Amino acid sequence: MDIRLPGPIAAYFEADGNRNADAVAECFSEDAVVKDEQNVHAGRTAIRRWKAEASTKYSYTVEPFTIEVEGNRKVVTGHVVGNFPGSPVDLRYFFRLTDEKIAELEILP
C-alpha cells in the first residue's frame, strides 16, 4: 500500500533507506529528541550517531504502510525486515513535527 507521508517524514524514511546518517540527522531540528530501544538521543549530533550505529550494526528495510494522527503526533506504522533479533516486525514511529523538521521521534513495537 502506498501512503502519502508529510515531507520531513518521507525524507526521514528515504534517508534511512539509503543508510545516510547525515541526511537522517538533517530531517530533525537542532534540539530534537529520538527515543528508541529504551534509549534517548538528544540533539542532531546524537541522532546522527544513533542512526550511523544502527545502520552499521544491522541491515534492514522499512516499508511504511499506515499513517494516523494521535494528538500532536503523526504515527506511521512500518514493516521492518532485517538481520536483527525479532525480524520481521511492525514498528510504530511517533513523529512530532515543528517548522518542517522532526522535533521528536519515538519508535515502539
Uncertain stretches of 5 or more adjacent residues = none
Number of strands: 6
Question: Assembly state here?
Answer: single chain
Give the averaged pLDDT, no decimals.
95
Q: Give the proportion of residues in helices.
A: 25-40%
Rg (C-alpha, Å): 13 Å
Distance between the termini: 20 Å
Main pleated-sheet profile: 6 strands, mixed
Q: In percent terms, what proportion of residues is strand?
A: over 45%
Order of helical and strand elements = HHEEHEEEE
Q: Give me the side-by-side strand order of the main sheet.
A: 2-1-6-5-4-3
Please state the structural category: alpha+beta
Number of helices: 3
Q: What general form does the structure show?
A: globular
Can you summarize this structure?
With 109 residues, the protein is an alpha+beta fold. Helices cover 28% and strands 48% of the residues.
Key terms:
six-stranded mixed beta sheet; alpha+beta; 3 helices; 109 residues; globular
